Amino acid sequence: MLETHPFGSFVPPKARYLMLGSFTTKEAFDTKKKDFYVWFYSNGRNQFWPILESIYKTPLKTRLAMKQLFSKLDMALADIIYQCERRKNSNLDINLTNIVYAYDDITSILETNTLVTIFFTSRNVEDKFRRVFKGLISRYPNIGLVTLPSPSPRFTMKLTDKIKRYQELLPSLPKT
Prior knowledge:
Blueprint: E1 3-4, E2 17-21, H1 48-56, H2 63-72, E3 75-79, E4 81-86, E5 96-101, H3 103-112, E6 117-120, H4 123-132, H5 134-139, E7 144-147, H6 159-169
Parallel strand pairs: 2-3, 2-6, 6-7
Antiparallel strand pairs: 1-4, 4-5
């Protein structure tokens, strides 16, 4: 079954950073949870939001809280895949097939914002971006490209080490 990304992208005004993942989890299509908790990478096992909770010392249990954090960080959030099918009803990137990339959406984010850094949620996302979006890399050579450790529990780095690495690489919250 072909799935179309249910969230599109989140772009706060004057975004300076972009966080890019691959594709949202199958749980994002659960209409009972969709408006409350489930947003990018929220499947209960993915460590993305727990990592950010630890770094930024804030609970991220609702979509509103997640959006507020990304707004404070001046960070857009998007996935490189717009549509795909899943083999084995799996969230694993290796099981995503018949991929349509979110080229127009990502191009629009780069054209309408002054980005300084693009963060990738895994080496796999970075590799696909470099291959599929290489024209954008050429058009925007001053944007830094930074790869974070995968928040997937399948990536064997200890959670504490992931938190440390994310904290080293991600921007700090602005002082209020």
